[in-house]
Amino acid sequence: MKVGKLTRRTVLRGVMNGAVVSVGLPFLDCLLNENGTAIAATNEPLPTVFGTWFQHLGFTPGRWVPEKIGSKFDHNVELKVFDPFKDRMNIISGMQYFLDGRPVETHTTGAQIATMGAIPLGSDSPASIDSIVADAIGTRTRFRSIEVALNGGRSSYSKRKGAAPNPSEPSPAALYTRIFGPEFKDPNAAEFTPDPAVMAKRSVLSYVSDQRKTLLKSVGSADRDRLDEYFTSLRQIEQKLSIELQKPAPLAACSVPGKIQQESIGDLVDQAERSAHLFVSLLAHALACGQTRVVNVMMGSQGLRKEGSINSWHSYTHFEPIDSKLGYQPETTWFVNWANGVFVRFLQTLDGIKEGPGTLLDRMLILWQTDHGYARVHTMDNVPIMTFGSANGRLRTGIHYSGIGDPTTRVGLTVQQAMGVPTDRWGALSNNTNKPITELLA
Predict the structure, then answer these.
(1) What gap in Å lies between CA 286 and CA 5, rounded to an integer?
(2) Distance from chain centroid for Cα 261
(3) Which of 212, 309, 365, 407 holds its CA 20 to 30 A away from the CA of 23?
(4) Helix (H) or strand (E) run with residue 12 in it
């Protein structure tokens, strides 16, 4: 490989088992202007990217809303884990989902209003907010959007207007193959598709090793360090996937017949956390390498449980008594704290990818949503909503906004406008609004 002038579309290519593999490159200093804020070849700013994180079952009343409204607020106890990102996030409290006389389909109706701005009426099903944003920013990338589920399921709230949901990818290994594996034009064609286990065990990086070495010699020291960190990170992902997909060694003393399979994805919190750590790295690399500009994560909270327990997070929200001394449900709160920690890992990963003077998180906007204000009794008011990142400076951050009694769709409208969607209204019936939160728009 001769390395000429590097561009944003430069990729490393190789051939594995007759199929083309490619590895995209992150934004390097040599691709940016002198300020590190725009692409040198076009002087266009680094593209803004978008993500959603949907987590059922909300938070605990009295433990998440900050006392102070506006800037310089202090996190309440349940959100203390987000302290390192306090200046780059917003908390929206007091808003609600309006039913307009429709019955509540628990854990579904709120999610529909949150993501689509309305409860679907028959086949009249609106597009989800991520699809609306993807229509504005995601049409020139390899993947229009990428959806994943941490609990091994395929559920998703991402959908085009009137279409079926975009299924989530439940397997980090399969997502790895999609992003860094063979570039098939037709996924339904009768062609051999390498097993994800083979893709993990036989590193994609090994098929572009000569190009990688040539590239490292052709760039400056800062970009060389960044590429070395990037390739090391990809190698670590491959190694983790390889371990996850390998069968355990046979146990000679075991009387159980047959081979022992290692379970890698599922509803156990340990499984979900392992998947999450792999998924967030893959999604961050996909965004940093321009493979997509929109990602969606489904926590799949309801069925999650601890190993050895028959009770799920969902069941605890309904049947666990409130501790008289603590004033809340301790097991339910454990799950909330665990999930917040998993999400923080996503933020840390995005913030760890340096781009010029900033990070990937700085040019991103992440919308965190949930289905109920208080899962224990399925309330539809005071619904927790958070945003992270400034969308390349288009969104003010570090603010607690209280919109008591307002429709949650005000947040969705604000997010769409910050992402450049040409709209001045969103939602249906009582959830319809033409009032963005101007205090958040830069």
Answers:
(1) 22
(2) 29
(3) 365
(4) strand 11-16
pLDDT for the residue numbered 240: 61
Nearest Cα neighbor of 155 from 345, 302, 306, 305 is 302
Residue 225's H or E segment, with its range, is helix 221-245
Residue 10: CA count within 13 A, CB half-sphere: 18
Is 253's pLDDT higher than 60?
no
Token pair belonging to 76? 């309440």
Contacts of 293 (CB under 8 A, 6+ apart): 47, 48, 49, 50, 134, 137, 138, 141, 287
**Strand, helix or coil for residue 287:** helix
Q: Which of 135-139, 214-218, 313-317 is least confident?
A: 214-218
CA dist., res. 49 & res. 288, Å (int): 9
Residue 252 pLDDT exceeds 50: no
CA angle 98, 74, 280 (to 5 degrees): 70
| Cβ atoms < 10 Å from Cβ of 301 | 25
Distance CA 164, CA 143 (A): 18
Whether the full predicted model's pTM is greater than 0.85, yes or no, is no
d(CA 279, CA 140) in angstroms, rounded, equals: 23
> CA–CA separation, 368 vs 381, rounded Å?
16
Calpha distance 88→207 (Å, rounded): 39
Tokens of 304: 């999650």
Q: What are the φ/ψ torsions at residue 419 (nearest 5 degrees)?
A: -90, 5
pLDDT at residue number 375: 93
Q: What is the CATH number of domain 11-187+194-245+266-431?
A: 3.40.720.10
Q: Which residues face 22 on adjacent strands? A: 13
Q: How far is CA 32 from the centre of its chain?
A: 26
Q: Identify which has the larger pLDDT, 152 or 124.
A: 152
Tokens of 25: 């490159």
> Of 25, 28, 93, whose CA–CA distance to 408 is shortest?
93
Helix H, strand E, coil C: the string for 361-377 is HHHEEEEEECCCCECCC
Q: Percent helix, strand and coil across the chain, each rounded to 5?
A: 35, 15, 50
